[in-house]
Amino acid sequence: MAYDQVHHYLMPTRDKETNFRRFSAGSISGLISVLFTYPLEVFRVRLAFHTKFPEQSNNSLLRSFKQIYHEQATDSRPASGLTPNTNYYFKQYPILKFYRGFSATLIGMIPIRFLAPRTIPLFIWLTLEYI
Question: Solcar repeat boundaries (predicted)?
Fold first, then answer.
C-alpha cells in the first residue's frame, strides 16, 4: 500500500517511470513501513528473550512494554555544551526507547531495496537459461 502511494506520487504517468524513481519509490515505501513496524519488532524480540529466560522476568505483555518504556539509557558520555546526550532525549521522549537501533536498520535497508528488484529477474533468467 505504501509503495503504491509513493509510486503514484513519484511517477504519475507511465512515461515518468525510470529505474531511479522505481528504486526511490521502493526505498521510501520500505522506510515508511519500517517506521511503523520497528517498535513492534523491538517488543517482539523482548518477549522472545523473556520466554527464553523466564527466571529473569515475568512474561506479561504489559510488564514487558512498561519495562522498555521505563528503561534507562545506556549512553555514558557526558553531555557537551550544545549537544545533549541520548539520556536527555530518552527522558524527554520515552517513546524513542522503542526505536533503539533504528538508524542501523534504515542504513541496512537501502541496499536491500536497491538489489532485490534487480536480482529476481536475474535469477529468473538464469533458471530459464540453464535449468
Answer: 17-126
pLDDT tens digits for range 58-110: 557 777 778 878 877 665 566 555 566 667 777 888 888 888 888 888 787 76
Secondary structure of residue 59 in the 3-state scheme: coil
Q: What does the alpha-carbon distance between residue 52 and residue 54 come to, in Å, rounded to a whole number?
A: 6
pTM: 0.61
Q: What share of the chain is helix, strand, coil (3-state, %, to 5)?
A: 75, 0, 25
Q: Domain spans of the chain?
A: 2-74+85-130
